[in-house]
Design goal:
By secondary structure, this protein is of the alpha/beta class. The chain contains 17 helices and 9 strands. It folds into 2 domains: 210 residues, Glycerol-3-phosphate (1)-acyltransferase (3-Layer(aba) Sandwich); 164 residues, no CATH class. It is 59% helix and 11% strand.
Length: 426
């Protein structure tokens, strides 16, 4: 019940938090077979939310057992179709509780249900696949031992964030070809360790094909700068927010792959040029987008910002309290980077629901038709305020770029152009 009630609210919250959600190759997810979605784990729990909200199948999730310690938390999480999986750090006593979780998994797969497992085991915000745990392989092989007739499929999933902890960032999700567990059963029956290792290895390969995977963490800054150049070279439509296109992800994956193949001398040369260019932009107080799209500084946009200002103020102020609370909790109460966005979204969502309920009670007390219309208009005004802020930031940057001398503008464009020949998709 709580899962069904929460899903539409969470869907709306995710479409507000993320400017764009790319959800590609969804047709690869079987609709009538027992499946395990094997996904990477860059945030605390946004990945399960994204898959639960935008896949048609109902999902059950294996999550950290320590989140279930308090009785109230346990009831809520179980109602959201989450089941605990305990780790060695949780103590031997808790590890024994995994028996019940595994039995639940076997029964769920027997009933052709869908499970989601965050196969890296721990959460870390990074643009690479980390070593996988063997839990998914162990679960499916044990299930086949109990129910030999089941055609269990493992679907590799890649979840790629531009900036997972930032409001109005983007996420790219892609599904790999399903892996039929039966194909590995003969190897498993001959040698269990070898069968588990082989299946886990192939899950990892399938996931890597859906991920931006940078081999060396020392190249993170270089990748980020090249990704900014690539993104600003593209013109992405604002709508639909949920987009099935995969070209954007493929482009970013290609950049990471190219960097993986460069020599250290090549990487240092490119990074030096990129850093010089971006340092100048930082001093000038605008971004690369202003250099690529100076046309944003246009009378049309100025008029739009002027005419929309009153509606922006109304939408911003009317929706400020719950959003501000979410931001405050995220920035001041959450220490671990990977938990910031998850906790911030959850806090803002709960606060917004309560806030709108209070406003509705107040509107009912007044009981005038125009008050109800005003209440109904608040979400639209709030979303309009977000779009207004997006346009204002682009307009402001383009204006600052336009105010530079023609010589400086030409120089910045020339510096950027010199980066393009070494850019894999320049």
């Amino acid at each position: 019940m709580l899962y069904r009630v929460t899903k539409p609210l969470a869907t709306l919250a995710l479409k507000i938090f993320f400017r764009k959600i790319y959800f590609s190759k969804q047709a690869r997810v079987p609709r009538d077979k027992p499946i395990i979605l094997a996904a990477n784990h860059p945030t605390a729990f946004i990945e399960p939310c994204l898959l639960a909200c935008f896949l048609p199948r109902s999902l059950h999730f294996l999550v950290r057992g320590d989140l279930f310690k308090k009785p109230l938390h346990r009831k809520i999480l179980m109602a959201l179709q989450m089941v605990p999986i305990f780790r060695f750090v949780d103590g031997y006593k808790n590890l024994k509780q995994n028996h019940d979780t595994l039995e639940f998994c076997y029964q769920a797969l027997k009933e052709d249900k869908a499970l989601m497992i965050l196969t890296e085991g721990t959460t870390k915000q990074t643009k690479r696949l980390r070593p996988l745990q063997k839990g998914a392989a162990r679960i499916v092989f044990r299930c086949l031992e109990l129910h030999m007739d089941k055609d269990i499929q493992i679907v590799p999933v890649g979840v790629n964030y531009t900036y997972a902890d930032r409001f109005r960032s983007e996420v790219m999700i892609s599904f790999g070809e399903p892996i039929a567990v039966r194909d590995y059963l003969s190897v498993y029956e001959e040698n269990q360790v070898k069968g588990i290792h082989l299946l886990t290895q192939d899950i990892a390969e399938g996931m890597k094909m859906q991920l931006i995977h940078l081999e060396d963490p020392a190249d993170d800054d270089l990748l980020e700068m090249l990704l900014v150049l690539y993104r600003n070279n593209r013109t992405e439509p604002l709508f639909p927010i949920l987009d099935a296109a995969r070209e954007r992800l493929e482009g970013e994956m290609a950049i990471a792959t190219a960097i993986n193949g460069w020599s250290e001398a090549e990487k240092q040369a490119v990074e030096k040029k990129c850093k010089s260019y971006f340092d100048q932009l930082e001093k000038l107080n605008f971004t690369d987008q202003a250099v690529v799209h100076p046309e944003t500084y246009h009378f049309k946009n100025a008029a739009l910002l002027l005419l929309g200002f009153v509606f922006f103020v109304l939408g911003y102020l009317a929706n400020y309290p719950p959003i501000a609370l979410g931001k405050y909790v995220k920035d001041n109460k959450v220490r671990q980077l990977e938990f910031k966005a998850s906790v911030g979204i959850t806090t803002a969502l709960v606060a917004t629901v309560l806030y709108y309920l209070v406003l509705f009670v107040l509107a009912a007390g007044i009981n005038e038709w125009y008050i109800y219309i005003a209440w109904l208009s608040l979400p639209l005004l709030g979303y309009g305020a977000l779009l207004y802020l997006d346009l204002y930031e682009r307009f402001r940057g383009a204006r600052l770029f336009a105010n530079l001398s023609k010589t400086k503008q030409t120089d910045l464009k020339a510096q950027r152009a010199k980066l393009l020949p070494v850019h894999p998709l320049g």
